[in-house]
Design goal:
The complex is a heterodimer of chains A (674) and B (166).
Chain A lengths: L1 H29 L2 H30 L6 H6 L6 H6 L5 H21 L6 H25 L23 H30 L5 H31 L10 H26 L3 H24 L5 H6 L1 H25 L14 H31 L9 H21 L10 H25 L5 H26 L6 H7 L2 H26 L1 E7 L4 E4 L2 E12 L3 E12 L2 E6 L2 E5 L5 E4 L1 E4 L3 E10 L5 E9 L2 H18 L2 H4 L5 H14 L5 H4 L5
Antiparallel strand pairs in A: 1-10, 2-3, 3-4, 4-5, 4-6, 6-7, 8-9, 9-10
Helix pairs in contact in A: 1-2, 1-6, 2-5, 2-6, 5-6, 5-7, 6-7, 6-12, 7-8, 7-10, 8-9, 8-19, 9-10, 9-13, 10-12, 13-14, 14-16, 15-16, 16-18, 18-19
Chain B lengths: L1 H5 L1 H16 L9 E2 L4 H12 L17 H15 L4 H12 L14 H28 L7 H14 L5
Classes of the chains: A alpha+beta (674), B mainly alpha (166).
């Protein structure tokens, strides 16, 4: 009964999505006000029905309804309740439902926070999102229905993949999907602008906060995925250039380019066509990523071919979305204005160069990810494209980008002078160079790659200092603190995000350069030394979990002869699937992680144990958090908050603000809160 | 035994040992033996297997995986290294046995030219498009020539603008 209810809600949601994807757009084209007014209620109705459908699926999972194929395949009655709930999005079908639910959620957010936008614009934006939703719901109903029944019902479910039985699994996919789906808003704004032909800077202003919020979610989603791989996979890696990881990284790179390009379009009116193209690409890559990960094509091209209905639908959908957007773009592009003039050396062109580097990097990662699939499907042989390829391609492309990241914020719009920049930055360069050369010595061993990585990181940090100092010198009277307080949040947000990149680079560089690993046979009472710590194995004992049995090792960690903690890595065997999983124990610290994983049991209670000392590894994720926090700070900037206030106050503040920033008209149309 | 213990020299030694043991409780603990017998070979083996694929795993390297297949293959590599084989010889051996699929670093050959040249091509084409676009753009936007009066006005605006344009 409940699954049928879910199925019925899904069909109703499809009908509403069809309405949402057609009538408001036609209404906007013909000036039919009642059709335009339809957009908001229909969006909210669709959300309600998708929420009901999702609730039904979650109910089936939580209550172990093994007469639903999806539940029978991806859950088990022994699974703890929160994992049964999370299993709702653990499968292909369920994750698609989560995807459309989030799309509907973003649509509702647009419908609510768009009161100040022209109604026909909102109608077009929501209409485009409705069309995307139609595609996804049809895909589910035709090829991957999460509510399909299994008759006769299974007595017990095969398990959720043990890898996914983790807290990371509960929050990582929703975060990632919030990012993926969030780019649909930027996409919808771009398409709406192309349809209407109003491609002035207004749409950039409107879509900018939405894009930033989506980017923040995607950043956090990727960070969580990386962290999850680190503590769950048992070999202590944090990024493997796996196709699944790349699928999320591609929209992130293009999204990062988009965030920067939108800034130029909003402030200077330039790059309009480029920004539109990026908005289309970011969302197209999100779609591609969703399908790559979820369709099974990555595990085997042949497995994919055995169920061609899904593949054909996916390809068709991608071709329609990407093809029609690009056609629309090609048709409208000649009418897009060029915007303000700028010199070859200016902040605009530096941002454009950075955009190019990011997009080329994304293109290369896409090439490396799809190449093995292409070769396999063309019967040209099986190859693997792994970390050596991606590192060889990615690092050289990102190095100039990081360099430009330091220059950009210091150069002027329209026209910058290279000698002046060089003057201002020679100290930053000298300091970062000296620190980069000396720092590795502090760590114990001088390595060229470490020095190089640190140079990039310190360059970014030093330029941030120079930039803030320069800004303060030009911010009129008052103490340092009043002058600091005078700067906008969006200014700090930029530096915070860039600082996050620097922290990230430091983490990556130091853990790659100085990580140590020991693979040892530990008898009871025996010890191993690493990085100033002593690990003593005191034996392993059996423990029973809710749906697994495990051997848990006890390893005392001593520092300067004092016991600081006991680490308990586990080797689990899951009851339902019989899969064994390594559950490492991690001691997290500000400047290092200690990481212990159990290998295989030996005779007399001895075990093979892997011990790692990973300096600065947590800075990798901390850097990502800073980037995300920078994004949030940008969205909370007063120019986006002001529009909530009543008109007279807004006008007054605008006047005040206008005195400070000559381009003060940005307030007039306001932004939007995400 | 007892008279022996009372022997002052013996007792001193005992106390010394006891103090030593108490001071550093690790001294009597046995240092765990590395799984690998030869650290040099182990290092080479790890460096090699880092870039090799564990064929039975879902995208894991031989170095990272603890599947039986990976364990066996690591042992194989270790033994071949002990026999004095060069890294390249071992890679050739593995490719002959398992094909290019085992290599995370794809070889340069006609079917992979596009893969290796692609990124450079993207960059060159992108840079060329960017360059010509910027040139074209500059030609298209011809700013109307200003009168002297407008010039002065513009300059005063620019002065005000300083420092606020970041």
């Amino acid at each position: 009964m409940i699954p049928e209810l879910g199925n019925f809600s899904l069909i109703l949601a499809l009908l509403l999505a069809l309405t949402q994807g057609t009538l408001p757009i036609i209404g906007a084209a013909r000036g039919n006000l009642s059709w335009i007014a339809l957009a908001r209620p229909v969006v909210q109705g669709q959300f309600v029905f998708l929420a009901i459908a999702f609730g039904c699926l979650a109910y089936s999972f939580v209550n172990n309804d093994f007469s639903v194929i999806n539940v029978a395949r991806n859950s088990n009655s022994e699974l703890p309740t929160h994992y049964r709930f999370a299993a709702s999005w653990g499968s292909h079908e369920g994750s698609l439902l989560l995807w459309v639910l989030m799309l509907a959620g973003w649509s509702v957010a647009v419908s609510v926070f768009s009161r100040h936008l022209p109604d026909e614009m909102v109608a077009r934006v929501l209409g485009v999102m409705g069309m995307v939703s139609v595609g996804f719901i049809m895909f589910m109903l035709i090829t991957s229905n999460p509510f399909d029944r299994l008759l006769p019902a299974a007595f017990e479910g095969s398990d959720l993949n043990p890898l996914l039985q983790d807290f990371g699994m509960v929050i990582h996919p929703p975060m990632l999907y919030m990012g993926y789906v969030g780019f649909s808003v930027a996409f919808a704004f771009a398409i709406a602008a192309l349809i209407s032909g109003q491609m002035d800077a207004a749409w950039a202003r409107w879509s900018r906060p939405w894009t930033t919020v989506a980017w923040v979610f995607l950043t956090i989603g990727i960070m969580l995925g990386s962290w999850w791989a680190y503590y769950e996979l048992g070999w202590g890696g944090w990024w493997f250039w796996d196709p699944v990881e790349n699928a999320s990284f591609l929209p992130w790179m293009v999204g990062t380019a988009l965030v920067h390009s939108l800034a130029v379009t909003e402030k200077r009116g330039s790059f309009k066509s480029w920004t539109l193209l990026l908005a289309i690409s970011a969302f197209s890559l999100s779609l591609l990523g969703t399908f790559l990960v979820r369709s099974g094509v990555l595990t085997s091209v042949h497995a994919f071919a055995t169920d061609p209905s899904r593949g054909i639908f996916i390809l068709g959908f991608l071709v329609i979305v990407i093809g029609s957007s690009l056609l629309l773009f090609a048709w409208r592009a000649p009418k897009i204005g060029l915007g303000g003039k700028f010199d070859l050396v200016s902040r605009e062109s530096m941002l454009l160069a950075n955009n190019l580097l990011l997009v080329v990097a994304a293109g290369s990662v896409l090439l490396g990810t799809l190449y093995p699939l292409l070769m396999d499907s063309l019967d040209l042989g099986k190859i693997s494209v792994g970390p050596p390829y991606f590192e060889a391609v990615f690092v050289p492309l990102m190095t100039p980008a990081i360099f430009l990241m330091g220059l950009g914020p210091l150069s002027r719009w329209k026209q910058a002078s290279l000698p002046e920049l060089a003057m201002r930055l020679r100290w930053a360069f000298g300091v970062s160079m000296a620190t980069a050369l000396l720092m590795p010595l502090v760590m114990g061993e001088w390595k060229p790659m470490v020095s190089f990585g640190l140079l990039l990181a310190f360059w970014v940090i030093a330029t941030i200092f120079v930039s803030i100092r320069h800004r303060l010198q030009n911010s009129g009277q008052g103490s340092v603190f009043t002058r600091l307080a005078r700067q906008s949040r969006s200014y700090y947000s930029m530096h915070l995000a860039h600082f996050g990149i620097a922290i990230f680079i430091i983490g990556v560089t130091l853990v790659n350069g100085y990580e140590t690993e020991k693979d040892v046979r530990m008898e009871i009472g025996s010890t191993v030394e690493m990085g100033g710590y002593t690990f003593r194995f005191t034996g392993a004992s059996p423990v029973t979990g809710p749906n697994y049995s495990a051997m848990r090792g006890d390893i005392e960690v001593l520092h300067n002869g004092e016991k600081i903690r006991v680490m308990q890595p586990e080797k689990r065997t899951y009851n339902a699937s019989g899969m064994t999983m390594t559950e490492p124990a991690i001691d997290t610290g500000f400047i290092r992680d200690l990481y212990v994983a159990l290998g295989e049991p030996l005779e007399d209670g001895a075990w093979v144990v892997r011990v790692y000392h990973k300096p600065f590894v947590d800075w990798i994720w901390f850097g990502c958090l800073l980037m995300a926090f920078g994004g949030m700070l940008a969205v909370s900037d007063r120019r986006y908050r002001l529009k909530i206030n009543t008109k007279p106050i807004e006008a007054a503040t605008e006047e005040k603000d206008g005195g400070r920033a000559p381009s003060g008209n940005r307030l007039a149309t306001g932004g939007k809160k995400g | 035994m007892i008279p022996d213990l009372l022997n002052t020299r013996g007792r001193k030694q005992m106390i010394l040992l006891l103090i030593l043991a108490l001071l550093s409780p690790l001294n009597w603990a046995k240092e765990a033996a590395p799984v690998a017998e030869d650290p040099v070979i182990e290092k080479r083996m790890l460096a090699l297997s880092e870039d090799l694929r564990c064929l039975v795993c879902q995208n894991e390297s031989l170095a990272g995986s603890r599947a039986d297949f990976a364990n066996d293959l690591r042992r194989e590599i270790r033994e071949q290294l002990k026999e004095g084989k060069k890294d390249q010889e071992i890679i050739d051996f593995l490719v002959a046995r398992y094909g290019d699929f085992v290599l995370y670093n794809p070889p340069m050959k006609p079917t992979t030219y596009l893969l290796w040249i692609g990124p450079f091509a993207f960059l060159l084409i992108g840079a060329a498009i960017l360059f010509f676009y910027l040139k074209m753009r500059r030609r298209q936007i011809e700013e109307p020539s200003l009168t002297d009066d407008q010039h002065r006005h513009a300059e005063s605006l620019l002065k005000d603008d300083k420092g606020n344009n970041a």
